[in-house]
Amino acid sequence: MTTAAPAPKSSATPPAWRVLLSYVRPHRWALIAGAVLALATGATGLALPLLAQRLIEDLSADRAIGGALAVMTALMVANAVLGGFGSYVLHRTAESVVLTARRALTSYLLRLRVTAVDRSEPGDLLARVTSDTTLLRGMTTNSLIGLATGGLTLLGTLVMMAIVDLVLLGVTVAVVGLMAVVIGVIAPRINRASKSAQEAVGAMGTAVERVLGSLRTVKASGAEAREEAVVHDAAQRAWQASIRAAKWQAIAGNLSGVALQAAFIIVLGVGGARVATGAIEVGALVAFLLYVFYLMSPISEVVAAITGYQVGAAAITRIQEVRALPAEPVAAPAGPGPAAPAAVAFEAVRFRYSEDLPEIHHGVTFSVPPRGMTAFVGPSGAGKTTVFSLIERFYDPTGGRVTVDGRDVADWDLGELRAAIGYVEQDAPVLSGSLRQNLLLGAPDADEAAVAEVLRTTRLEGLVARLPDGLETLVGHRGTKLSGGERQRIAIARALLRRPRLLLLDEATSQLDAVNEAALRDTVADAARETTVLVVAHRLSTVTSADRIVVMDAGRVQAVGTHAELVARDSLYAELAATQFLATSS
Ligand SMILES: Nc1ncnc2c1ncn2[C@@H]1O[C@H](COP(=O)(O)OP(=O)(O)OP(=O)(O)O)[C@@H](O)[C@H]1O
């Protein structure tokens, strides 16, 4: 796996706001309700200076102020209640948007083509699901809502100011306009810094995943300090980029305060002169100054909307980079299907893992009839495991055809194809969780009797009996609490529970103890009576019990036959049989 991030942004990527809207769409009514509440809050606030103007005029004219005071109090209470409720609705909606984005992204991640995952780092992908999606929360509340409510309140305030005095409005707009120009220059910097920060968080995830994924090897190699330095370096870069973004955000945020203070002073000066010349009343100046103060909140909202948008847009770019990676079609949930063993054939298959890598299969041809066991042998790197990857359609061949039951695997429904196959990988992965969860991974509906039967055939009964919680025992991350042989048998049990029509068994190169090896051989031989078994063989006992053997060398099929035939006629096989197998099957 390389350190490369997922594919670069394609030119067809929609703009960030459109992506955000697609996440927001399911929650639009809640969002609209929140925006209406925010606007109502703004409106109640806006009415207050006008009432203050009335109050001053009433006071100076010696009129009663009880009514105006009561209305002001009612408005203040309404402002607080609407504001609080509106804020809750908006934050709740923002969390829902994050949820939608996380669900969409994880669904997509699980459908990624294996080839896309080969080129990505799990730690970085994880950061995109957890950390980048979190940034959409701020983007929703600050940007969408902030822009809508702040923008409208701003407009409302400006209209009110226009009613009070046009000259003072002109002064205010000039100062605020200057500020807007400066923020326009700052915004892209926030975007860039935020993207770097998130990239560094991704790199940190990659570094941590690398260490935790191979902690024993790291410790055994005495590499803790060096690996620590890699994680620290990524964390440091995240910190640096984040404070760069924070700096620009702080500058933009402060700018609005400074601009308003400047506007306040200038309005005070110009307004004072206008009062002196009798152009406006004192009450009008006071009301206008109050509106200048009222500008503070919508302007900070709009500024936060712009800066918050930049942070969110950077996150959306990273989310969209994942969504630009190739994915498999959505597999239909596979029905029971026919239970008959499957036939497999390779017809002049050519394959390379990616365009920049050498060809692995140079025209592989063989055919396997239904039922029976076929062993694949050959030197390391000959392309045996790749045969299985192509049958599972983890990758597509670059030439020729792979068929199952005479039908090109590309024409199969992917869910149906994989439902027909039980696959045991060479390193027999066991997932974190309980033993039962591991066994039922590929056959969630298997009943107790089927589980008990498969435990017996794979010789796991003893292990289950020994474990403190039996089948419910947690096996640890990647099954670290199990031995290599146990993991291998669990992987075989899991594949068998699927009752596959085709069993692909990539034999571990490591040795099983003699008793378990014989038992597993019998299990696989039993399975071969009812299913088609393909096994990448590393043990002589496996090849001798196979019905046919396919000898592969350097991406080609060199010979096909039984053990006895091949020993007599194929020199490579004779050599493998004499050295490799005998050496590992004593
Ligand atoms: N995901 C991958 N991306 C790029 N190259 C790969 C990938 N998987 C395998 N290869 C390369 O393809 C070649 C064939 O690998 P494959 O695993 O099919 O060999 P094999 O015959 O099963 O070997 P072994 O007996 O050692 O398991 C190797 O040279 C390997 O380096």
UniProtKB/TrEMBL annotation:
The chain crosses the membrane at residues 29-52, 64-90, 144-163, 169-187, 251-270. Residues 32-310 form the ABC transmembrane type-1 domain. InterPro entries: AAA+_ATPase, ABC1_TM_dom, ABC1_TM_sf, ABC_transporter-like_ATP-bd, ABC_transporter-like_CS, P-loop_NTPase, Type_1_exporter. PROSITE patterns: ABC_TM1F, ABC_TRANSPORTER_1, ABC_TRANSPORTER_2. Residues 344-579 form the ABC transporter domain. The keyword Amino-acid biosynthesis does not apply. GO terms for molecular function: ABC-type oligopeptide transporter activity; ATP binding; ATP hydrolysis activity. It is found in: Cell membrane. The keyword Protein transport does not apply. It is a multi-pass membrane protein. One of its GO terms (cellular component) is plasma membrane. Its main location: membrane. Keywords: ATP-binding, Membrane, Nucleotide-binding, Transmembrane, Transmembrane helix. This is ATP-binding cassette, subfamily C.
